[in-house]
C-alpha cells in the first residue's frame, strides 16, 4: 500500500495542478471574453445608429457638413448607451476631426468605426472609443479570488487523498498484523493438533490441511498439494473396510451442509479412526465449505478393551469372594457394593448405594470410627484390619474387619475401595 501511495502521488499532483489551474484561469478568462464580446456588441449597435444620423445630416448639406461641428455635437449628445466612458468622433476624409462628444477613455481602450457616405462616396468616418479597464479590473479580482480557491483545491486534492491513503494503509497494516497473528495461531493450532484436519470449500477444492492428516491416511504430499478433494477422497476411501458406505456418507454430507457427523471408521490395516465434521459459515451465515477431523483411536480402543476385560475379571473375582467388597466416593457415599452384602449385612447391594458406612453403625460407634477414618483419609494411605461394629438389617450388631485402599485423583482422594469381613466378637 505504501508503494501504491508513492505511485499515486504524481497522479494526484497532476490532477490537483490541473484543477487548480482551471480555478485560477477559467473565471477571469471567461469573464474577460464574454465582457469584451458584450462591450463590442453594444458599441457596434451604437455606432450603427449614430452613423445613420450623421449620414442623414451630411446628405442635407454635403458641401458644408465639415463646418457643422455644433450641429453634430447636438446630434450626438446626450449619449443614449450606457458605457463607463466613451468618445464619439467624426473625421472627414483627410482625417481631420469635425466634431467629438464625450471624454477620452482610460487606457486600454477599443475602437469601432463606421464610414460616412455622400451619394455613395466615402467622405469620412464615425469612430467610437471606449475603455476596457473596468473589464480588466474585474478580471483581476476574479483572478485573485480564483488563486485562493485554486490554492485550497490544490492542497485538498494533493494532500487529502494521500493522507486518506496513509490512514487506510495504516489500518490495513494493522489488519495485516492481526490477520498474520490469526493465521499463525491457526497454523500452529492445526499442526499441533493430534487430529488430522482437512478443510474443503464448497467447490470441492482443498483450502488447508495439516501434516497429521497426511500421516494418518498415508497420502502422497503431491496429491494433497494439488488442492483437489476428489483424488484425495478416492485415496482415502480405498483404505477403508467399507468403501461404498464411507463414500456414500461423504457425498451425503457434502450435499447436506447443515448436517454434522461423528463416525467410527475401520481401516483395512486394522486401525480405527474417529471422524468428526461440520460445515463452515461466515458471519452472514453463507456456506463456505466443510472441515474434517480424523483421530486415530486404535490404541485408545485397545486400551479400553483391556480395561474392560480387566474390570470384568475384577468383578468376577469380587462377586466370587465371600468378603464384602465396596467402594466409597470422595463424599463418603457407597458407589459399589458386591453381592456379599446380602450375607454380611442382610441388604441387597442396591439398598445401600448412596449411603455412608456410618449409616450402618450404632451412633457411638459411628462417631469413633468417623474420627479414625478422618485420619486415614488425611494420610491418603492404605489401611488394614480396622475393627468396628456394624448393625445388620435385622438389627443384630456384628464385628467386622475392614481394609481399604485410597484411589487418588490429582493428589486428592476420589474413592476408597474397601474389603470387609465378619470377625468373631472377642470376649
Task: Please write out the topology.
Layout: H1 2-60, H2 69-76, E1 86-92, E2 97-102, E3 109-118, E4 121-131, H3 133-192, E5 196-201, E6 206-209, H4 211-217, H5 221-225, H6 229-237, H7 243-255, E7 261-266, E8 272-281, E9 287-296, H8 298-320, E10 324-329, E11 334-337, H9 341-345, H10 349-352, H11 363-379, E12 383-391, E13 397-409, E14 412-423
Antiparallel strand pairs: 1-2, 1-4, 3-4, 5-6, 5-9, 7-8, 8-9, 10-11, 10-14, 12-13, 13-14
Helix pairs in contact: 1-3
Write a brief caption for the model.
Helix content is 49%, strand content 27%. It has 427 residues and is an alpha+beta fold. The chain has three domains: 1-192, no CATH class; 194-297, Beta-Lactamase; 321-423, PAS domain (Beta-Lactamase), CATH 3.30.450.
Structural commentary:
The protein is of the alpha+beta class. It has 3 domains: 1-192, no CATH class; 194-297, Beta-Lactamase; 321-423, 2-Layer Sandwich (Beta-Lactamase). 49% of the residues lie in helices and 27% in strands. The protein is built from 11 helices and 14 strands. Strands 6-5-9-8-7 form a 5-stranded antiparallel beta sheet. Helix 1 (2-60) packs antiparallel against helix 3 (133-192). The longest helix is centred in the middle third of the chain and has 60 residues, at 133-192. The chain is rod-shaped and about 170 Å long. The model is unreliable at 80-84 (pLDDT under 50).
Amino acid at each position: 500500500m505504501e508503494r501504491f501511495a508513492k505511485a499515486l502521488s504524481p497522479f494526484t499532483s497532476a490532477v490537483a495542478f490541473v484543477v487548480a489551474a482551471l480555478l485560477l484561469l477559467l473565471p477571469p478568462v471567461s469573464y474577460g471574453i464574454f465582457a469584451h464580446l458584450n462591450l463590442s456588441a453594444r458599441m457596434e449597435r451604437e455606432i450603427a445608429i449614430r452613423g445613420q444620423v450623421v449620414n442623414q445630416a451630411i446628405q442635407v448639406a454635403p458641401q458644408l457638413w465639415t463646418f457643422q461641428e455644433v450641429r453634430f455635437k447636438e446630434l450626438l449628445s446626450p449619449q443614449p448607451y450606457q458605457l463607463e466612458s466613451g468618445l464619439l468622433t467624426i473625421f472627414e476624409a483627410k482625417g481631420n476631426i469635425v466634431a467629438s462628444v464625450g471624454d477620452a477613455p482610460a487606457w486600454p481602450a477599443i475602437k469601432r468605426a463606421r464610414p460616412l457616405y455622400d451619394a455613395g462616396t466615402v467622405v469620412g468616418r464615425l469612430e467610437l472609443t471606449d475603455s476596457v479597464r473596468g473589464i480588466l479590473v474585474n478580471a483581476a479580482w476574479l483572478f485573485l479570488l480564483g488563486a485562493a480557491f485554486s490554492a485550497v483545491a490544490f492542497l485538498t486534492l494533493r494532500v487529502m487523498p494521500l493522507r486518506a491513503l496513509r490512514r487506510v494503509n495504516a489500518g490495513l497494516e494493522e489488519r495485516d498484523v492481526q490477520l498474520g497473528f490469526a493465521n499463525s495461531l491457526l497454523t500452529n493450532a492445526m499442526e499441533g493438533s493430534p487430529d488430522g484436519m482437512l478443510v474443503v470449500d464448497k467447490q470441492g477444492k482443498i483450502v488447508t490441511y495439516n501434516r497429521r492428516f497426511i500421516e494418518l491416511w498415508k497420502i502422497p504430499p503431491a496429491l494433497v498439494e494439488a488442492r483437489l478433494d476428489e483424488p484425495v477422497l478416492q485415496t482415502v476411501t480405498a483404505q477403508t473396510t467399507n468403501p461404498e458406505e464411507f463414500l456414500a456418507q461423504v457425498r451425503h454430507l457434502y450435499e447436506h451442509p447443515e448436517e454434522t457427523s461423528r463416525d467410527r471408521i475401520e481401516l483395512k490395516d486394522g486401525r480405527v479412526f474417529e471422524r468428526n465434521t461440520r460445515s463452515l459459515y461466515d458471519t452472514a451465515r453463507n456456506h463456505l465449505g466443510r472441515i474434517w477431523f480424523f483421530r486415530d483411536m486404535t490404541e485408545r480402543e485397545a486400551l479400553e478393551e483391556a480395561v474392560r476385560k480387566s474390570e470384568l475379571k475384577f468383578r468376577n473375582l469380587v462377586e466370587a469372594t465371600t468378603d464384602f467388597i465396596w467402594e466409597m466416593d470422595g463424599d463418603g457415599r457407597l458407589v459399589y457394593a458386591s453381592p456379599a452384602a446380602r450375607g454380611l449385612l442382610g441388604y441387597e447391594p442396591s439398598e445401600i448405594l448412596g449411603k455412608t458406612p456410618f449409616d450402618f453403625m450404632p451412633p457411638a460407634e459411628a462417631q469413633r470410627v468417623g474420627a479414625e477414618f478422618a485420619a486415614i483419609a488425611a494420610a491418603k494411605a492404605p489401611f488394614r484390619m480396622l475393627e468396628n461394629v456394624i448393625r445388620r438389617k435385622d438389627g443384630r450388631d456384628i464385628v467386622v474387619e475392614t481394609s481399604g485402599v485410597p484411589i487418588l485423583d490429582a493428589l486428592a482422594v476420589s474413592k476408597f475401595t474397601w474389603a470387609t469381613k465378619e470377625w468373631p466378637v472377642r470376649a
